[in-house]
Every structure is written in C-alpha cells, then in structure tokens.
Write a structure and sequence with these properties.
Layout (H helix, E strand, L loop, with lengths): L11 H20 L5 H7 L4 H29 L1 H20 L4 H29 L2 H32 L2 H22 L14 H12 L2 H31 L4 H54 L5 H27 L6 H26 L5 H25 L3
C-alpha cells in the first residue's frame, strides 16, 4: 500500500523496474567483473592485494559516498541525484575499461563506486518515500527479484566476454548497462520526494539526524542483519573467483555458471521472502532465514576443515546460504529505513555505509590471507553466517517492529 500522504505518479510496475535496475547496478559492477579478475591481475602484473584493491576501493567509495548522496537527495530530491550519479558511473566505467595500469584501474573503480552509491542509496530511499515499512519489505523483495534476474546474467556474461575477448570487454559492458539505465531515468523516472527538506544539508541538522538514526534500536537491529548477510555474500564475491579458477581448476566460463546458479537460488529466496512475509510477518521470516544461513555456512566450514576440497562442497552449502540471503536483504534494508519517513535518504545512506565498511574490512583481510586453499573463503562465510543467525534470533526479535 502506498504511504497515505504520498502521491505515486509512476505505476507500480515502473517503480519495481527502476528498483531492479538501480539495485542491480551493484551485482553488475561486481559479479560481471569477477571472472575477469584473475586474467586482469596477470595482464597488468598486479599482486593479489592490488587486485583485491580494485574491488575493496570500489566498495569503500560506494559506502562513504552514500553519506553524501543521502542528505543531498533529501534536500534536492532523488531524480537529480540519480541523473548525476548515473552519468558519473558511465564515465567511470569507460575509464575502467581503458585503464593501462592497475593504479589507473583502482582510481576509476573508486569513482565508479562513488557513483554507484547514488543509485543504490536512492533505490532504498524510494521504497520508503512511497510505502510503509511492512509493504516496503514486499516491494523491496520484488526489486531484489529483478536484481536476481540481472545477477543471473552478469557472471556468465563476464566469463564469456573475458574468454572471447578480454577483461576490457567485460568492464566496457558496465558502461552499456549504465547508459541504458541513465536513459530510462531521464525518460520515465518521476520525483518521489513530495516535500524536500531544506535543512537536510545543514551541519547541525545533519549531525542530529545521524545521531537519532544510530540510536534507533530498530535501525541497529536491521542494519546488523543486512551487514552480516552482505558480509557473507561479499566474502564469496571477493574470494570465489580465485578459489574456483586457481585452486579448483575451473575455467572462467565454468565459474560463471557457478555464479549463475547462486543468482538463481538468490532469486528464489526473494520469492520465498514474499510468501513468508504474508504468512509469518517480518520477525518470524527473518528467524527462519537465519536458520538457512547458519546451516549453509556451518556445512561449508565443517567440510572444508575435514579436508573436503571440491566445487560441490562449497557450491551446495553456499546455495543454502544464498536462499537465506534472498530473504534477509529485503527485510534488512527496508526495515532499517522504515522508522525514518522524513530522513529516508540519510537512513539509507547509513545502512549502506555500514554494509560497505564490513565489505572493505573483508577485502583487506582476504588480500593478506588468501593462501591457495579454500579455507579463507569457507571460514569467512561460516563466521558471517553465525553472526546473521545471532542478529536474526536476538536483535530483530526484540526490536524488529518500528
């Protein structure tokens, strides 16, 4: 149901389409690039830590930039921020594809991450602009279903482009996706902020807003859930290409198919999320998903410690984890923003920032701990799955109702 004092000019299907494209920008920017990462590292003569930096710098810029984009969008509206952010994304994508050195690539990927922050932050804020928290979780799951469909194509396409052409072609595909999204926003997107906040950028007001958000137990509960869930996902994103291709001997195309399977499972999780929300509500839905997360993570970790080193011993448990992730992310992201209808941009920004702080820390850790085995990957996902279950079964149960 729409928020009672908001007039939705765009049809609901159009809203979901924009959510899918804007949220889908994140897997396009990361997943499509992953099959190219080992070849890119070799061609540019980069070390493992430098290669990880092309991903972690992007995500750090993505997280920090949202703290700027959020208040800006509360002050000026979502549409101008989306147009500016997507234009910068297209330019940065072209620069990344043409980078002659690893240092240049890191710079362009950093700009790309900052531009991506505008798109994803606005997508989460748009849901709160238009919908109440409970309905927002359902609408968010539809947008994330669209993200899942997009993610299904990105890794296989990245593997194909890398195998047939080079990593340059894989990164150039990001510019094409960004340009199409920018054109659709310019053509069809209508402003969702009914009343802009003229004080959103004032330092004192901004500090008070951030403090009130960070002190809100509902925000903290759902942000802990979404950050832990993204931590497990990012561990897989950052380490899996090296594990599957270099340790287990998969080709780039085979690895892309593994990522396709994970995206399909995630997509199934978003559909399951909507069914569970109708039947059980947010808190029980999250509790059920917590069981899936810790089951998958524990199975993966135990088999790795037992010396089982094969693709199925990682892929099958991770599929269980991804089913839970497809439930946690709609509930976590919409739940964190839910208590703040008049500061949705700032709340969305802080939620995104916390997720990216987690991702950056994981990237830094993996850059120094990848040892030619599956253990850094499997142990990391096991760790985060435990935190997911703890957040889902305690914090969300106590504070999950705005």
């Amino acid at each position: 149901m729409p928020h009672p004092d908001t007039r939705i000019a765009m049809p609901p299907t159009t809203v979901v389409l924009f959510l899918a494209l804007l949220l889908g920008l994140q897997p396009v920017t990361t997943d499509l690039y992953l099959p190219a990462l080992p070849g890119l590292t070799q061609e540019l003569g980069a070390s493992m830590s430098q290669a990880q930096l092309t991903l972690t710098a992007l995500l750090l810029a993505f997280g920090v930039s949202q703290l700027i984009w959020g208040p800006l969008s509360d002050r000026f509206g979502r549409r101008p921020i989306l147009l500016l952010g997507m234009a910068a994304y297209v330019v940065a994508s072209i620069g990344s594809a043409l980078s002659p050195t690893i240092e240049a690539l890191v710079v362009w990927r950093t700009l790309q991450g900052a531009a991506m922050g505008a798109a994803v932050m606005c997508a989460r804020a748009i849901v709160r602009d238009l919908y109440q928290p409970v309905q927002g979780a359902s609408v968010m799951s539809k947008g994330l279903s669209g993200l899942g469909v997009i993610a299904c194509t990105t890794a296989p396409l990245g593997g194909f482009l890398t195998a047939m052409f080079s990593w340059h072609a894989a990164l150039l595909a990001l510019a094409v996706f960004g340009a199409v999204t920018l054109a659709l926003i310019a053509w069809k997107f209508e402003e969702t902020v009914r009343q802009k906040n003229p004080k959103a950028l004032q330092g004192r007001t901004l500090v008070r807003t951030w403090i009130s958000i960070l002190r809100n137990p509902t925000f903290l509960a759902f942000s802990a859930l979404s950050a832990a869930s993204y931590g497990g996902l990012f561990t897989f994103l950052a380490a899996s290409s090296f594990v599957f291709i270099r340790v287990l001997g998969y080709s780039a195309t085979q690895y892309g198919l593994v990522m396709l399977c994970m995206s399909l499972v995630y997509l199934s999780g978003t559909f399951l999320c909507r069914r569970l929300l109708v039947r059980y509500g947010v808190r029980r839905t999250v509790a059920i998903a917590g069981g899936l997360s810790v089951t998958g993570g524990t199975a993966m970790g135990v088999m790795a410690l037992a010396g089982v080193q094969s693709g199925w011993a990682i892929a099958v448990p991770h599929a269980i984890f991804m089913l839970g992730h497809g439930i946690h992310q709609p509930c976590g992201q919409s739940g964190a923003v839910g208590p703040f209808p008049h500061a949705a941009g700032a709340a969305s920004a802080l939620n995104g920032f916390l997720m990216m702080v987690v991702a950056f820390a994981i990237g830094q850790w993996l850059g120094t701990h990848m040892d030619g085995t599956v253990l850094p990957l499997t142990s990391g996902i096991w760790f985060w799955s435990t935190l997911i279950a703890a957040s889902a079964w305690t914090l969300v149960q106590r504070h999950g109702t705005p």
